[in-house]
Specification:
212 residues; alpha/beta; Rossmann fold; three-stranded parallel β-sheet; three-stranded antiparallel β-sheet; 9 helices; 50% helix; 12% strand; globular
Length: 212
Amino acid sequence: MLLGAPGSGKGTQAEMITRHFGIPVTSPGAILRREVELGTLLGIETAEKTKHGELVPDKIIIDLIEDWVRLHGAAGFVFDGFPRTIPQAEALQGILQRHRTPLDLALWLDVSADTIKDRILHRLQCQSCGFTTSEGAAGFSERAICPYCDGHLIRRTDDDASVLETRLSEFNSKTQPLADFYGKMSTLRKIDGNRDRDAVFADISRLIEQPA
């Protein structure tokens, strides 16, 4: 799993992992975006919450994650930004035990406050496949088209300064304690996420390729 503050690069690294290693990847955000695209009641409800930086209720997230593990867990998994709270982490332990799918690594991407602000305020995301990049990368601000699926690259509705403050407050109070939770299990590895994506991915790759 990939853990860290908003803007730490979790989505970017998850995408690079799945493209390089072929490991299925998901996130609560990806699952919920699909619900929004389908226009379900769940999608409409959660879209309003995320627009204001609020977290989706745990029960909804946990049920969606268990459904995903049931379908994809046998091939391994990468969780992007899940769990986000101690109760979610405890529920995930139960899910993995029930489906006999062990957790090998919890990767914590450490980033500074300046890095977070810069990335969030210049982030673009593909409406179709979820590819994440920045306005300054490869001239995407001039031609905002995804290089993988030709979908439109847009600013996320929760990527503004006021919502960022809410998200960081939620992170500090609810997600930061996961560092101790997984640290006690010896599965946690911390990585300097302030560097460029390739340098971070090189460190992650070494950890994934280490023999058990």
